[in-house]
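## Example record

The block below lists the input lines for one assembly entry, exactly as stored, with component labels intact.
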Amino acid sequence: MAKDAEKERHEDPDGGLNRRQFFVRLGLGSLAVAGAGTAVFAYQFLSPNVLYEPSPIVNAGKPASYPTDSVTLDPATGIFVVREAQGFYALSAVCTHLGCLTVWKPELGIIACPCHGSQFKPDGTKIAGPAPRPLPWLRMWLNDDGDLMVDRSNPIAARQFVRI
Amino acid sequence: MAKSLTAYLDELRDSRVWRSIFRSGPGQSNLHHALVVQSNVFLHLFSVKARKRVLDFSVTWYLGALTFGSFLILVITGVLLMLYYHPAVPLAYTDMKDLQFVVSSGVFLRNLHRWSAHAMVLLVFAHMFKVFYRGAYRPPREFNWVIGVVLLLITLFLSYTGYLLPWDQLAFWAVTVGSNIASAVPVFGHRIRFLMLGGNLVNANALLRFYVLHCMILPLTAIFFIAIHFWRIRKDGGLYAGTPTTVTEKEGER
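Predicted structure tokens for the full assembly:
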């Protein structure tokens, strides 16, 4: 009885918030804002702003060092430099399945992945295996010194040869 | 006549120092034993009393206790391995080789850590199968099963993060493949991989992140959940002894 009277006394006659409800909501709201801020802070902290990773642009050396109809893997940079009669192109050697480094099998004339058995033609198209996409062609050009340059971060449409 | 060992122990347990540390004096009564368990920070996680039958080997095969034992071995050997291991490129690999060939008992500790890790994964699964086939996951123990699943995941994450630390070919490619699997998550996949590796490549940042996860974050999380797991055994009515009556009979009672 007395409790009801007390409740009535604290209740807003207009049906709005009483003081306690207002402060509870203010407190919960502040906690929500602080929680969201912490999540943003954590996300930003965990994302490095500067990466000391190798440059995506690599120097593949002189064109003359690649014989015609050759596929050359550079394991350090993960690219194939292919020379055909039509010209040069660079192919990513990173398997499109789960990122393993593929290798050129000269005796079979295919590019093969050691991890899960994907196989590709020298132009990157898939022959077999779980890989979902062909190996991408990478932008390639000649620099002023006459060296072949490859931008690993820049995949291009297939069959764009560099003619020298 | 010389005093018996029990008499010496009773004297020790009656001493002021013992009482100040353990709070319980000498005594053999059931109440005394219960108080000893209750007033000990480690023992109070467990039941004060257990049925003699549930302590038989055949009931649990001690799989949970063996899992915890392998976890303790992993903590101790892991902390010792940390004294010779730098989570940096290319030191990590040479440190691992030093542990194998240069550090006294290094190869023993490393192998003990590795075999215990394998054993722990095996024991966790065996423990889960045993609990499952005995029906010990059923109410009121269902939440402890959920905690057990969390502990299984922590165990697997510990295995995975530990896999990178030797920084050899196996480690590098396993984590390359694993992190690419993580990037298959819809929408956020590539962000998850980036945060996990601390970059776009499995590199120095990834090694350091996996090291911190493996040596600090995951073990502390595991200890937290292990404590709840043990405490819940007590709260859910002690170790599961099996139903004394058949299920149909029990349902008939209702």
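Chain B touches chain A through 15 residues (CB under 8 Å). Chain B has one domain: 61-242.
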